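User: I'm putting together notes for a lab meeting next week and I want to include a structural view of one of the chains we've been expressing. I don't have a solved structure, so I'd like a prediction I can at least talk through. The sequence is below, exactly as it appears in our construct file.
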Amino acid sequence: MLISNYKINYMKIKNSFSVIILLILSLGLLGCSNINDNDHSIENAKKMYLNAIEEANKNNLAKANEIFDAILSNYPYSIWATKSKVMSAWVYYEGNNYDSSISAAQNFIKNNPENELVPYAFYLIAMSYYERIIDVERDANMTVKAVETFENLIDQFPNSEYARDAKLKIELARSNLAGKQMSIGRFYQKQEQYAAAIRRYKTVIKEFETTDQTPEALLRLTECYLSLGINEEAIRTASVLKYNFPNSIWTNKLPKQIIKNFDTQKPEPENNGIIHLFKSLF
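Assistant: Thanks for the context. Below is the predicted structure for the 282-residue chain, given as structure tokens.
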């Protein structure tokens, strides 16, 4: 009887071990299956992403965004979904859908502040404003926003590959803003509202010193002073123009009656050797 019970217990234990082994094997196989499925998903997401880029390069922008949306829906936690978010903003930009591009890029920055593509997202936002700088004399809003975003990009990511282009575009945009001030100044000058014109020209010289609008602003300021009979200020302003921009077309347009009155003493340079434009004007 004891031997019989022993055999029964042994069989139970043996069967239990068999069940455990089967469970372990099943879990192992399930784990391998999950790993394989995950690898397969990542590969699918990558293929879809590359396909979307290819469609965008063919100018099939709607199709490209459809694929990006599909990646976000099917593989939301993959690296390709993260990339798709900012590349969707790029596709909108390429299609001149600037507001959608800005919105998509801003959402990307908000949700992925540490991502390596954040500088590019800032660049897309800035360019979406920059591309709409058409007539700064009527509306400077886009110009201002472009400058602000480019400056934000440079401040946060000074060593990014987009920083250099951002600096160039800031200067062009600032030149447009200075151009608006010049246009208003010329209008006041023609209306013989010289005080108002002087304020505009001084704004250009003070706030947009490095732009290509500065030489003309100095010339127009000289003309306004002459019209008001403030000859000393006219001579002083003309002197700054002559010594800072000797080869400018605006220097060559200085009134003849003022050229002979130039003080031959060259304005004192700053420490960096550049003649300070405001030394004798403000």
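A couple of points you could mention at the meeting. Residues 2-57 form the longest helix (56 residues). Confidence is low (pLDDT under 50) at residues 1-27, 29-37, 269-275.

User: Perfect, that's what I needed.
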